[in-house]
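Q: Focus on the chain.
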Amino acid sequence: MSKYKILTFSFAVMCVAVFAHSASAATVTLTDLFYPSAQATINYDGPAGVSALTVDGQDQLERHWFWVRAGATGPATRIDLLSDINVVAIDGDFITVDYRDDLQTPSFSLQITFTVHGAPGRSDLLQDIVVTNLSGASQEFHLFQFTDYNLRGDANDELVMITSAEKQYATQVEADNSAYAETTVANALAPSRVQAGSPSIATGLDNGTITDLAAVGSDGPTPIGDAAWAWQWSTTLGAGQGKAFGIDNAVVFGPNPIIPEPASLVLMGLGSAMMVWRRRKQA
């Protein structure tokens, strides 16, 4: 018996979705309707998660995915391992997927709409997230996001800086400053903990050695190398209560405005430069 239910907007789209579910893990490629060189590949019920985000046809992403935990302590669970995964809607440039922790008596639902947008030299992966407490009592909920870019197709010459101003920002920069990725959070639910480091963060989330991320507010910059980072949202939801927020993962070809020169100045004074730039931007 399949654990998936697929609701689609047209018969043709439905056929594509059903075919995708015939594989052991379902993968879709979203394409911007007006700028088709911007694409995102999402293995929404498998461990790869979002495995590609192309800018002008070149992939810039190694992996971007989510883990969840209901309760104050204990290991997190990768969302593709939850027992009930339903595609709610799908079209050329977006997909909405509903994740629940138990098929019979779910205690929470996590619904994510992934949408890709593009422009020359830029691609955005927008994620609209709604978490709902389906139980009859108040419960603590934690959501983890892990992101690892390979900017310009190279994993080994990047750094990450996470900063907290009026919004939460995570910036991953190519060492020669030829490309950067910037992730922002919209709405009120800002991350409670952050961690800048290496791809081993995802391994720690998988094996339970990371149950809460290392820092509050800001972290980094990391040494130049194969950099990655993560965010953690923690909130208490009353019975039947839900919260919604948005994430924008943007990759841009061109210099990041917070860095005046390439690698020689990247590590020196990056934190203060970023905060000054953010304050000016918000002014």
In short: Confidence is low (pLDDT under 50) at residues 1-24, 259-283. The first helix runs from residue 11 to 21. The first strand starts at residue 27 and ends at 31.
